[in-house]
Amino acid sequence: MNDSFITALNTQKATTNWMDAIAHNMTNIYTPGFREEQVNFKTFLGGVVSDNYSNKVSQGKSTPGTDPANLFLEGKGFFLTKTAEGKSVYTRLGEFAFDSEGVYRHRNGNTLQGYILNDKGEIMQGTKSISADLYQETAFKGGSLDIPTANIKLWIDPHNGKYLGKYDDYEIKEDGTIYGKADSGKRTVPLYRIATRNFHNSAALFEFKEGQFIETEESGKPVLGVGQIRSGLLEMSNVSFKDNISYFQMAKLQMEISNKLISSNKDLLEEALRLVGQ
Q1: Contact of 102 with 155, CB cutoff 8 Å
Q2: Where are the alpha helices (DSSP H) in 28-82?
Q3: Burial class (CB in 10 A: 0-12, 13-18, 19+), 14
Q4: What ranges do the domains of the chain cover?
Q5: 156, 102 in Cβ contact below 8 A?
Q6: Which residues have a Cβ under 8 Å from the Cβ of 130 and sit 6 or more positions away?
Q7: Distances, alpha carbon 202 to alpha carbons 42, 82, 205, 261, 262, in Å
Q8: Using alpha carbons only, what angle is made at residue 226 by residues 193 and 71, rounded to the nearest 5 degrees?
Q9: Do residues 219 and 199 make contact, with C-beta atoms less than 8 angstroms apart?
Q10: DSSP single-letter state for residue 217
Q11: What is the rounded distance in angstroms from the CA atom of residue 270 to the CA atom of residue 276?
Q12: 117: exposed, middle or buried (C-beta count within 10 Å: 0-12, 13-18, 19+)?
């Protein structure tokens, strides 16, 4: 026979973890790029316990950014960034900007990755070009071309402040292509295409820092992301206020039942001890 006291204690602990996750979600409901944390449960003979945590993968709404270089990814996937050690880190929070040397960086210092383009807008793999059709076809099939990415750098000429010494400005299109602009916008040249990645099980990515993810065995290897990129915007949290209020009510009821079971078992134990002592 199951021990109801142990069952109640296990359920109480699992419910506490659940309520902590709900509180964390509600605290970050307006935090750009925040992914809603979800608690999974499993049962066994000793009651309910919390299983692995996962992140909600649905799209958050857009909001105006703080820099024209901020990015909003509308679709499935993550921006690919690299640490100073070359480690791949994935994020939905597009708080990017060009530093004083023209390097495109996240606010945490990681560099945004992209593909180098030729003047036709084709991705370059060494000295060979990859056609846009092949790139898109591979992306929609969920595959990944083995093309190395590079740090995006619009070299700023310290003498005239222009990008690459000859471009006055830049523009980011919805497909992630970065164009250098000159002659008051009359001349545009494709320079980079922003790299995005997706996963067959993106909910299983490991969030080692707020809004920063790395791949795991459960997430699988990265494939090409599919979506549109909009500059000057950021993605808001994908936390559902309504859903989390509902979860909190359920967790509250579960906690009350667990506490009542613990209290009842305590009363029964005290009565048993009293009878034995007579």
Answers
A1: yes
A2: none
A3: buried
A4: 4-56+239-277, 62-235
A5: yes
A6: 122, 123, 124, 145, 147
A7: 21, 18, 5, 38, 38
A8: 55
A9: yes
A10: T
A11: 10
A12: buried
Query: How many of the other CB atoms lie within 10 Å of CB of 212?
Result: 21
The partner residues of 89 in beta bridges, in order of sequence, read 81
Q: Which amino acid appears at position 72 of this protein? A: F
- Distance between CA atoms of residues 65 and 67, nearest Å: 6
Count the helix, strand and coil residues of the chain and give each as a percent rounded to the nearest 5: 25, 35, 35
- pLDDT tens-place values along the chain, 278 residues long: 457 777 788 888 888 888 999 999 999 998 888 888 888 776 544 555 555 667 787 889 999 999 999 999 999 899 999 999 999 999 999 999 999 888 999 999 999 999 999 888 888 776 677 766 666 666 555 555 567 889 999 887 777 777 777 788 899 999 999 999 988 878 899 999 999 999 989 988 998 888 899 999 999 888 888 889 999 999 999 898 999 999 899 989 988 988 888 888 777 777 777 777 66
